[in-house]
Amino acid sequence: MFELDKRLAADCLEVGDLPLCRVLLMNDSQFPWLILVPRREGITEILELDAAEQQQLWAESNQVAQALTTLYQPDKLNIAAIGNVVSQLHVHHIARFQGDSLWPQPVWGKLPARPYADETALAAIAQIRQTLSL
């Protein structure tokens, strides 16, 4: 049975579910940042998914990337499955802008998160859900 890693649950807001993945919004208002987590127990690497699930993951990753592009028009999308701290397979999708506070550096561990205000979070989640047809 799928269970979201406690660190992801603590750091993110739930957006909804695509056919394979749970979509999360990183609770850091400094960056438009979505995370896909395949709803498969015990998976830490993409290669552990079967071929059809791998294709589905990439299709959903493309769908999330398109949504971020539509909503935010970023200068660059950073997409990565790192997992050094949280081993549960998850894929980050971060919209980056040349004028953001960390450009061109990576966002991990550089600044403390600035959580969304409740109303702003609800509005962002609603926009993302609409764009992803959730």
TrEMBL record:
Q: What PROSITE patterns does this protein map onto?
A: HIT_2 (PS51084)
Q: Where is the HIT domain?
A: 34-103
Q: Which InterPro entries match?
A: HIT-like, HIT-like_sf, HIT_Hint
> A Gene Ontology molecular-function term?
catalytic activity
Protein's organism: Alteromonas aestuariivivens
What is the name of this protein? HIT domain-containing protein
SUPFAM superfamilies cross-referenced by the UniProt entry: HIT-like
Pfam entry (one): HIT
